[in-house]
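Team,

Forwarding the record for the chain on the shared tracking sheet. I've put the sequence and predicted structure together so nobody has to dig through attachments.
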Amino acid sequence: MSTLLEVGGVEVPGRAWIAPMTGVSDLPFRRAASRLGASYVATEMVACAEFARGRPDVVRRAAVGEGLPLMVVQLVGRDPELMAQGARLAAEAGAQIIDLNFGCPAKEVTGGALSGSALMREPDLAEALVASAVDAVDVPVTVKMRLGWDDASKNAPEIASRAVARGARAITVHGRTRCQFYKGAANWSAVRAVKDEVSVPVIVNGDIVDGATAREALAQSGADGVMIGRGVYGRPWVATQVEAGLAGRAFGEPDADTRLAIALDHFRDSLKFYGDRLGLRIFRKHLASYVDNAPWPTQAEARRSARQALCREEEPARVEQGLIALWRDPDRSLAA
């Protein structure tokens, strides 16, 4: 099978995509993953209302793609006019693909905002949002969704069909309902109903962490590609690893020294992009994940203590020194 996927005329040279994740897929992370070979890394979820109002933090998250081979912006909202405006702003900023979020299960998104996966309870509005974005821009619009709101309303095939009829050029489906959040196992086979319903590329998402899970997800769903979410925490190389697995090529986990170099490059880019104070604060989630995923045969409690100590540091130089010391001599550092 070809490793290239075409999305509305945009060629994505890979079938292992990295999901949009709030607090994770900012520009420094996207650059790190892209340097390591990822073909598709979406922005954090961007609220159309704040984007349209020009909030600096929102614009900074969405409208910057320097150093990326492909710029994908994900938008969330429930007002068709604001969705159109957000899509236009994203396209003007250089977005080559615009993804609409019908899948976020977070209470702050589905509750008062009635956005994300809450839109799966409003098929007419979901369809209108797709139409407004498609009509507003010349770049392809895609949709990311869940199987449905709950087990009694697994309407992903209907939402996908209506979205494609309105011009959506690819559909990503997380194999859980909103009410499951991240509990239980992703139901990859349920995504096949969406694949059978539409002619555009379908991407399966949920619990994909390596080549083996990617192959199984594709086999069960019949999808054209996979999307990796939480599996990239502390492992920004994972999309390249999955691509190799799908192609039958060997690709081992990076050794300790390589992981240290990746973490340091990512950290320095965060400081450069945000400034020392904000860059350090934002990087802490990544820092914790790098430590959690480090290849040391150590006890969980010792690893947790080392992670907490590093994440409490307020000086970037001390964080870097501590990270290097931990990597060079984990037994000593973890025992301290």
